[in-house]
Amino acid sequence: MWADIPSEEIRQTFQPLFESAGKxxxxxxxxxxxQGRLHCEVIAYFSxxxxxxxxxxxxEPCAKPPCAGLELLAGDDACWSAIxx
Length: 85
Description:
The chain is α+β, with helices and mostly antiparallel strands.
């Protein structure tokens, strides 16, 4: 799922849900900067385990993005191997 929402708001929504779920390795939010015609856009990608967070931001389902160019916005560093295997 993806949404174009301010990063700090996503972090603040994600963190309590992440902690209450026991900090699962497959729960994460990633961002990617994409070039637009007039400006850059930051797109957030929510892992399936972060669906509750994605719903808060009206994110739309999408295919899993390639990990190249992604940055971890929220979640544990171990999520890379849990999600992108």
